[in-house]
Design brief:
Mean pLDDT: 95
Order of helices and strands: EEEEEEEEEEE
Number of helices: 0
Low-confidence stretches: none
Structural class: mainly beta
């Protein structure tokens, strides 16, 4: 089992920045990739960014150049730095950890971009 705890969400004005954190505990040795997904009201959950154990990254087209995913292996934590935020970035952001055959999810953290 892997336990994920997110932090760092909140309310920010358009153009502002936020940094999300996700701390993993438990069977972390089995994790081969971690990432962030988001779900806006009435929409499907979508991938925002993902990073593998080898530090290979993948981003949704909508966030490329604005968001950066990184990980601290020593602290088993993954970060999402979000810059130049837009109202359409408003959503609940979920941390994900993938082990072969299993996805683990955090409870989510709300990000609201509004003036």
């Amino acid at each position: 089992q892997v336990h994920l705890v997110e932090s760092g969400g909140g309310l920010v004005q358009p153009g502002g920045s936020l940094r999300l954190s996700c701390a993993a505990s438990g069977s972390i040795f089995s994790i081969i990739a971690m990432g962030w997904y988001r779900q806006a009201p009435g929409k499907q959950r979508e991938l925002v960014a993902r990073i593998t154990k080898e530090a290979s990254t993948k981003y949704a087209d909508s966030v490329k150049g604005r968001f950066t995913i990184s990980r601290d292996n020593g602290e088993n934590t993954v970060y999402l730095q979000m810059n130049s935020l837009k109202p359409e970035d408003t959503a609940v952001y979920y941390c994900n950890a993938y082990s072969p055959g299993t996805d683990y999810w955090g409870r989510g953290t709300q990000v609201t971009v509004s003036s």
